[in-house]
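re: the backbone from monday

yeah here it is again, tokenized this time
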């Protein structure tokens, strides 16, 4: 279903940020903690390992909180948000991980792609079924990002909550702190897997000097005339379901500390 678009070369990532910011942000949704902190599988979704297995399952659901994170895999990076009342046409339900389950399928509204939503953040509204995802609701990291914060130099369980992946490497499961250099908007959606997109659904304005936690640099630049890339960040002031994972322009940030193009 997803068409293959032009890939932003890794060599261009540094230049993009230096020039005014690059596109890219990798975030995972809360699993182990109810406040929305990213918790990736040890060596799992978004971190280079194996996500929970899933079982084919239909029905249509509706997101039940104001701004619900959508993940690339169960317990994986956040790729956007499902606004309250928007429907999800489910094709699968994940096995449990840390007592949580995820429903995978096509999310309507401005997200308009396939992904995974934690089951406590949606309600079944009808028995309507139909596979709009071509058999899989998941998305590989390389489809939507070019860099993330896994190179953050810190002790285990420090600012980006590192855990050991199945390949032995240590990977972040949260964003790395960075301050804003100007007032800027936080956006619920950007569609980082597609070229020619603009950030949409602004949720709030944050001031200069505000601390965010950057997670990944989006694959494509924003086509909004800013010349900037887009970064997925966690806003620590907000909990899951209330726009805690959002996109900001890279030009709004003081840098991307701990950036690596080895994205798993």
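seq for it, each position gets an aa:
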């Amino acid at each position: 279903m997803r068409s293959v678009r032009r890939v932003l070369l890794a060599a261009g990532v540094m230049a993009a940020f230096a020039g005014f910011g690059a596109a890219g942000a990798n975030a995972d949704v809360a699993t182990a903690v109810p406040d929305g902190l990213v918790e990736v599988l040890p060596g799992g979704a978004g971190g280079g390992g194996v996500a929970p297995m899933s079982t084919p399952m239909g029905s249509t659901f509706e997101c039940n909180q104001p701004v619900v994170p959508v993940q690339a895999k169960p317990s994986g990076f956040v790729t956007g948000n499902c606004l309250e009342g928007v429907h999800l046409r489910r094709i699968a339900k994940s096995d449990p991980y840390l007592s949580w389950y995820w429903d995978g399928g096509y999310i309507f509204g401005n997200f308009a792609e396939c992904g995974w939503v934690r089951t406590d953040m949606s309600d079944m509204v009808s028995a309507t079924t139909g596979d709009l995802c071509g058999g899989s609701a998941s998305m590989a990291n390389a489809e939507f990002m070019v860099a993330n914060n896994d190179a953050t130099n810190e002790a285990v369980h420090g600012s980006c909550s590192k855990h050991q992946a199945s390949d032995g490497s240590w990977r972040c499961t949260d964003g790395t702190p960075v301050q804003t250099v100007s007032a800027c908007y936080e956006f619920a959606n950007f569609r980082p897997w597609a070229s020619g997109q603009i950030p949409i659904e602004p949720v709030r304005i944050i001031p200069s000097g505000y601390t965010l936690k950057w997670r990944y640099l989006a694959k494509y630049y924003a086509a909004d005339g800013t010349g900037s890339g887009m970064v997925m960040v966690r806003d620590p002031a907000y909990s899951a379901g209330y726009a805690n994972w959002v996109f900001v322009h890279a030009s709004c940030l003081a840098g991307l500390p701990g950036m690596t193009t080895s994205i798993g």
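DSSP finds one helix and 18 strands in the chain. Residues 1-50 have pLDDT under 50 and may be disordered.
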